[in-house]
């Protein structure tokens, strides 16, 4: 065989081996590969024989040496294996009785598993020494080494390509999730405080939303939330929240709309925005609610805050009725206050005054010229205070048993003096029987009322009796209590007659 023929055969064999290596990359695992000295030597022998004829004859060993080498190998085969290496036993060379299958009685020649082969029965590849590895490397032809390198490179490329494909797939999946979220409506919660509001029976709170979503589109719409601040769904983006109008509670309550605005960023579903957007809706006095406030609340209730237009109409009627009732009540109170003021207002020919509110309904008056007496209930013999106008330069002497409790200068040449019993002192002494010349005797309920009226309920009867006055009586302390109170509630209202 000439060199050209041998080169062609080598090329064909190399191409076939490369194709087989590439096709079997997915099937080959390291556990399936076993190396030993004999297998490498056998495969290398044809490479040696195929060397060119012009190679130096000195590099080729004589035939006799080969024969001697074969004899040596035959003798080695007859000897037991050494401790440092083992030979791979091929299944084709096993005797029939050592086959993994055997014929079972009554089943013909059907193969069956004989028994589990212990791991110790499987020959393991030997680890070559450094010298043996070097010898094998020299014996291996360059073409074979290139094929092995090509196989390793192919495995690395396949593994690397699979890893890159997995990473690229993950990135694409994450990008798809982000893109999907950017076009998914997100539910968010804001904070609202509206006392007494129950959106299941009243209307929801209209929230004006403006801003820009993740697509860059402008947003301007009205959304509705319940009393817990839930009900807003938006695409991710930056928004401004504000309260558009008042909701309407089931009893017709209208709320004051806050003017505050909140800047928020919607990022994910279920986002809690109460820290950035909380609105307080206060309850104003019902009589101050206007028709415009009710109409605005009813409009938003009909557009989405209530379950239906009919329900919104019912709520509007409730709000109007509540407002009207409050207005009527306030009007009635003002009218009564005016009547009371007229009833409390007293006038003489020289001065005028108003009976203290705390006394109104509990006292009555009698008048004689410029003298006015205020007494307890229907008992004219129990005066609280008597007012007398005295010209400047003239003296004033109170009745027996009375004390001057204060005075008011009219500015027209007259002074009005207020006098009467010091009830915080007189009453406890009279009840205890310690006054030899009492003005009168009083039942306990009357005594308590007299003390309360002349001190403005700042002290109880027991406190005055046991602490402020005491057993021995402290007229000065008791008098100060009454004079201080009258100076606050009665004397400032005394004015000269127009």
Rg measurement, Å: 58 Å
Shape: elongated
Q: Biggest β-sheet: count, sense, barrel?
A: 5 strands, antiparallel
Mean pLDDT: 76
Helix content: 25-40%
Contiguous runs where pLDDT drops below 50 for at least 5 residues: 28-120, 433-439
Number of helices, counting only DSSP H or I runs of 4 residues or more: 11
- Label the structural class: alpha+beta
- Which sequence of SSEs, written as H and E, runs from N to C? HHHHHEEEEEEEEEHHEEEEEEEHHHHE
Order of strands, main sheet, comes to: 12-13-14-16-15
What percentage of amino acids are in beta strands? 15-25%
Through-space gap between termini: 153 Å
How many E-type strands? 17
Give the arrangement of secondary structure elements:
Layout: H1 3-23, H2 37-49, H3 63-78, H4 130-139, H5 142-182, E1 186-189, E2 191-194, E3 205-213, E4 218-225, E5 230-234, E6 237-243, E7 262-266, E8 271-272, E9 278-281, H6 291-305, H7 309-344, E10 345-347, E11 351-354, E12 363-368, E13 371-376, E14 383-391, E15 403-409, E16 414-420, H8 423-431, H9 444-455, H10 461-469, H11 475-489, E17 495-496
Helix pairs in contact: 1-5, 6-7, 8-9, 8-10, 8-11
What does this structure look like?
The structure is a single chain. The chain is α+β, with helices and mostly antiparallel strands and 498 residues long. Helix content is 40%, strand content 18%. The strands form 5 sheets. Strands 12-13-14-16-15 form a 5-stranded antiparallel beta sheet. Strands 4-3-6-7 form a 4-stranded antiparallel beta sheet. A hairpin with a 2-residue loop joins strand 12 and strand 13. The radius of gyration is 58 Å and the shape is elongated.
């Amino acid at each position: 065989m000439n060199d050209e023929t041998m080169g062609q055969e080598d090329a064909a064999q190399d191409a076939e081996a490369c194709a087989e290596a590439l096709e079997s990359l997915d099937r080959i695992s390291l556990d399936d590969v076993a190396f030993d000295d004999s297998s490498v030597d056998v495969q290398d022998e044809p490479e040696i024989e195929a060397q060119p004829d012009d190679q130096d004859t000195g590099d080729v060993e004589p035939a006799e040496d080969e024969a001697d080498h074969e004899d040596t190998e035959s003798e080695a085969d007859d000897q037991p294996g050494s401790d440092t290496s083992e030979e791979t036993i091929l299944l084709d060379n096993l005797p029939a009785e050592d086959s993994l299958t055997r014929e079972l009685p009554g089943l013909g020649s059907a193969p069956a598993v004989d028994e589990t082969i212990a791991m110790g029965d499987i020959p393991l590849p030997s680890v070559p020494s450094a010298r043996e590895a070097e010898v094998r490397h020299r014996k291996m032809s360059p073409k074979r080494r290139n094929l092995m390198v090509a196989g390793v490179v192919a495995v690395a490329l396949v593994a690397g390509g699979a890893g890159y494909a997995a990473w690229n797939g993950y990135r694409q999946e994450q990008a798809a999730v982000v893109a999907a979220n950017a076009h998914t409506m997100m539910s968010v919660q804001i904070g609202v405080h509206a006392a007494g509001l129950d959106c299941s029976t009243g209307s929801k709170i209209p929230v004006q939303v403006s801003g820009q979503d993740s697509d860059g589109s402008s947003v301007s719409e009205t959304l509705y939330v319940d009393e817990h601040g839930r009900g807003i769904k938006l695409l991710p983006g930056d928004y401004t929240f504000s309260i558009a109008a008042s909701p309407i509670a089931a009893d017709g309550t209208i709320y004051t709309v806050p003017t505050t605005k909140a800047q928020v960023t919607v990022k994910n579903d279920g986002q809690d925005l109460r820290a950035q957007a909380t609105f307080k809706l206060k309850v104003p006095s019902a009589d101050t609610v206007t028709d415009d406030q009710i109409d605005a609340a009813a409009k938003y209730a009909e557009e989405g805050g209530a379950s239906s237009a009919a329900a919104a109409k019912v709520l509007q009627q409730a709000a109007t009725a509540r407002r009207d009732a409050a207005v009527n009540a306030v009007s009635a109170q003002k009218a009564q206050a005016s009547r009371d003021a007229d009833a409390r207002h007293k006038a003489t020919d020289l001065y005028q005054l108003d009976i203290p509110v705390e006394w109104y309904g509990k006292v009555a008056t009698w008048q004689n010229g410029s003298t006015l007496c205020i007494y307890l209930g229907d008992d004219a013999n129990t005066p609280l205070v008597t007012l007398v106008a005295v010209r400047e330069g003239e003296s004033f002497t109170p009745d027996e048993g009375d004390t001057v409790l204060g005075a008011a200068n009219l500015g027209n040449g007259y002074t009005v003096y207020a006098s009467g019993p010091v009830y915080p002192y007189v009453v406890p002494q009279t009840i205890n029987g310690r006054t030899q010349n009492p003005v009168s005797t009083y039942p306990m309920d009357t005594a308590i009322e007299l003390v309360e009226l002349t001190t403005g309920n700042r002290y109880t009867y027991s406190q005055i009796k046991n602490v402020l006055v005491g057993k021995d009586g402290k007229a000065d302390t008791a008098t100060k209590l009454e004079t201080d109170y009258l100076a606050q509630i009665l004397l400032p209202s005394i004015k000269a007659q127009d």
